[in-house]
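= Tokenised fold =
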Amino acid sequence: MRTKRPATTHPAGPGAAVRLSTALLAVCTGACAVLAVGAPPARAADGPGEAFTLTDPRITESSGLAASQVHPGVYWTHNDSDDGPYVYAVDSRGRTVATVTLRGVEPRDVEAVSLGPDGRLYLGDIGDNLGGKWPEVWIYAFAEPAELRDQTVEVTRYKVRYEDGPRDAEALMVHPVTGRAYIASKRQGGGGLYQGPEKLSPTGVNTFRRIGEVSWITDGAFSPDGTRLVLRGYFSAALYRWKDGAPAPLGALTTPFQQQGESVTFSADGRALLYGSEGKGSPVWRAPLDDGQLPDTVKPLPRPTATPTPGAAAPPGGASPDASAPGGSSDGPFDQALGVLFLAAVVGAVLGLRRKKKSD
């Protein structure tokens, strides 16, 4: 028979365990606070993910997207078909802040919107759900409103034909430097990239000539400086370098999974792409570009530098401590977290031994 020894002879008994647990909690709390302080604050506006959701119940088939250069944070969009001659301005929360009505226009199948260097928005009534039966399609141009309010605007109408016959198309891109218009046709098995005349004419016919081959395209956009072109389909996208009036492939892009991917545009600063989709209450996704994908005039952002731990003495000359040198320590959040885990393991081992001794 074993004699039960007094609890007072066990300095690591229940009372000590409580004290140790309390100390551990304090250490963990402090370390977590250091981790929170040491981590750079996330900037949702700069990161990937949902940028906003279209909240206007009238916008059910958003088929084009263009970032305003006049109104920061505003994007222009429109419905596909079965809507009137309307273009909507939405803000960075997805709220409609202006509805623009095109005077004298009866749209047939509006598929794209693009901003030109002349400060005008170009609307592409270029869709053809009959598989390329319309002998001609149209582009409408109007000045981007200086004031965001509901209004009716005058429109210039351009008649468009393709040199090789009618096409179904959903992508209209106006170059932001030259002002030249391009259309990418949509066809299973591959379409074509068509170039318009140097300057569109409001009289007569504007013939678009095939200058390249593309895949199944639902929208496209030039970067604000005109050095990049993005073309997207329902589930994929590709980036091109634009030089001397021709595209050079830069590679595939990672695209969000959307209900029906119909639109794409560069952000106003050229640092990201925004992808839109058809459907009521559809989200618009933001995808930042890597440094190697940025337009030529957009410089990579400086890399964040480590923030010194508050209260830590700065080494002579402002140099950072070298963890690999004798006596050096990185003293970063990751190392502090490892310290907390190590302490927890020690405490767990001590408490385990006490429980084992009691059971004996």
Notes: The radius of gyration is 30 Å. The longest helix spans residues 333-359.
